[in-house]
From TrEMBL:
GO cellular component, one term: cytoplasm
Coiled-coil positions: 311-464, 517-544
Primary localization class, coarse: membrane
Name the UniProt record assigns to this protein: Merlin
Topology versus the membrane: Peripheral membrane protein
Domain of life: Eukaryota
Domain called FERM: residue spans: 14-304
SUPFAM superfamilies, per database record: Moesin tail domain (SSF48678), PH domain-like (SSF50729), Second domain of FERM (SSF47031), Ubiquitin-like (SSF54236)
Amino acid sequence: MSIRGLKKKQPKTFKVKIITVDAEMEFSCEMKWKGKDLFDLVCRALGLRETWFFGLQYTIKGMCTWLKMDKKVLDQEIPKEDPVSFHFLAKFYPEKVEEELLQEITQHLFFLQVKKQILDEEIYCSPEATVLLASYAVQAKYGDYDPNFHEPGFLAHDELLPKRVLRQYQLTAEMWEEKITAWYAEHRGIARDEAEMNYLKIAQDLEMYGVNYFPIAQNKNHTDLLLGVDAKGIHIYSINNRFSPNKSFEWSAIRNISYSEKELTIKPLDKKAEVFKFFSSQLKVNKLILQLCIGNHDLFMRRRKVDSIEIQQMKAQAREEKARKKMENQRLAREKQLREEAERAKEELERRLFQLEDEARQANEALLRSQEAAELLAEKAQIAEEEAKLLAQNAAEAEQERQRLEITALKTKEEKRLMEQKMREAELIAVKLVKESDRRAKEAEHLKQDLHEAREAERKAKQKLLDITRLNYPHMVKYPQYSPTDTRDANFDKGSIKLDLKDIDLKRLSFEIERERLDYLEKSRKFEDRLKELKSEIHALKLEEKQSGLYS
């Protein structure tokens, strides 16, 4: 067969891009394929067996639509693009995730989708619950918390909380991370699939979980209500309240759902109950609502029937897989514990080794320091020995100098004793001279007084003699002749001689006193000169004695 023949037999295909929550895939789809063919191809590529929860969604003219399984792909109103993009998403939600989600891949896809809906605020969640959910998401992504590995700031690039919560509380990123980490640290030992399941178990209790909302009106002119379809039934909400429905229709209480163009009718199972009619904006919306109602109703009825062989096999495999994973997790936990213990022992040994190395290094350093100290001490001993020799030499010289100074001191002491003796003698002489001077001064004073009294008496006697002479011998004044016969004249002559003699004695006495005074002054001057010489010698001896003391 030729290559041209092979090319002719190859079917025509077109490219399709499948976008999951966390990945993108491209496939070649045959022109004749139906929606189920493409859907089965994607499920086989993902390894997904619980296919009834999922569907392929695309957007056309601003409206999200699900690809129909029983019609050809190209016969449906899909976007005209190359490749054609479809989103692989959960179309229907389980009532109880822990019982219905059997495969790990199914659980993981639901976890990613619900997490995205919470972060995009399509599902309302309280701030406290968002922090707890974020901690389980972190546990699923990073595993057990390790403070040595998960340092502050390790969640900086992860989107874990809705922007509404971040705006509601004025907390920093570090504060939010601290709150999430506090919960995250308590999830130690939980595997990834368990953390994701715990996340979904909390999320399934939220009011907006698994609900598809559509705007409706009770008449043709006003859109003032919301219709919600979920796994439990159909609910009617007010336009401003998506949490608490005004009216609910459980699947078990609905007999029939039908639509006619924009009008959709819900007939309860109780024929006496009122039929509920409402209007939508487009016919496509009614078709989509009916499609979701049929799929949710089918799953609702399936849950309440005996499981098929396929479901029983899947549940058995899921139980076995869980048991195997549990044992594997226990084994891994044990191995991890042993590894941690081994690492701790290794760290302890390394620490001990480092400590021993440090002690050895310190011992070597101490030995080097000891050797250096020994060398230094040897040098110091040599220097000390030299200094000792020098000191001994200096001591000998000092001893000689001391002996010389002792001899000098003895001489100095003898000289000092002699000088002190001379000083004492000089002081005694000075005292005697002072006493003699005082005595002579007193005698001179008495002599002067006696001389003065003698002269005064002489003067008075001369005056009295003259007075007597004038009275008795008036002519003797003119004629000074002596008469031998007059005894008074003889007495007068004798008195004059006596006066003259007395005057001569006084003059001689005065002369002697003056001469003795001059001699005394001369001796005093010589004594003062000698005293000054003695003081000078004593001062010089004292200086020599001080210098001798300094030398010693």
